[in-house]
Design brief:
It is built from 5 helices and 12 strands. It is an alpha/beta fold.
Length: 234
């Protein structure tokens, strides 16, 4: 697995951005998270060693642009070059998420057709409102590998009408940080049932900081949020 941060910074777009890890980290370091800029690792997927071999190995999963949004407007000038690198590295898989499904279709490469085999796209939906806004657009797009990301999960959400064999996986998790809003285990279990009925893969990724189970709230330190989610065996 490799990380590829093409550009950094993101405008607050919805409820899920209010307490996000990137915003908190930038503010702590005295940086402006709304400053969108190209990173020094922009050309990482095509970088080579002294032998002329790609530094990122064949078959790698490359988590792409996780400190911003791949389809953010301010990055339009750089995106075509990013697509060229993704096409060049057809031997690797690229995964990115977005809050902007309405911008996907007009920002796809000219030879996209029904999608690149090595590109996974996920759309984030932290509330029912966002799911109903974003998923009808997302579902209609020509993408071979689609994911739904319900993280941070801020309320109980019904995804059932969007789950079918067009969706590979639904990922969910709570919100981290001292100001995190609660995530309820009952919501997680309900999502798992929705996915089972639709035969869609399900991943409970992390508990978040304020996790409610059996009517009791647990404050889970960040270093344990992923491991505690794994213990649920969902």
């Amino acid at each position: 697995m490799a990380m590829w941060n093409l550009w950094h910074g993101c405008h607050k777009k919805s409820e899920g951005c209010l307490n996000c890890y990137m915003f908190r980290g930038d503010f702590k370091r005295g940086n402006n998270p709304e400053d969108i800029h190209k990173t020094n690792s922009f050309y990482a997927p095509v970088a080579k060693n002294k032998k002329g071999e790609y530094k990122i190995k064949k078959g790698s999963m490359i988590w792409t642009c996780f400190t911003s949004d791949f389809f953010i407007e301010e990055a339009d000038q750089w995106r075509e070059e990013a697509w060229q690198m993704i096409k060049e590295r057809s031997d690797c898989q690229f995964f990115f998420i977005t809050k902007r499904p309405e911008r996907i279709e007009k920002n796809l490469p000219a030879d996209w057709l029904d999608g690149y085999d090595n590109v996974w796209i996920g759309v984030t939906c932290e509330t029912q409102k966002r799911a109903d806004e974003r998923l009808p657009i997302f579902k209609a797009l020509p993408i071979k590998k689609k994911n739904i990301i319900c993280e941070p999960m801020l309320e109980k959400v019904d995804f059932s009408k969007y789950l079918d064999d067009d969706i590979y996986q639904l990922v969910c998790g709570g919100e981290s940080g001292s100001k995190a809003r609660p995530c309820h285990f009952d919501w997680i279990l309900d999502l798992k049932m929705q996915c089972e009925k639709a035969n869609v893969n399900f991943w409970f990724k992390q508990t978040g900081y304020r996790f409610v189970k059996d009517g009791k709230m647990y404050l889970v330190p960040r270093k344990f949020q992923h491991s505690q989610a794994r213990k649920a065996n969902l």
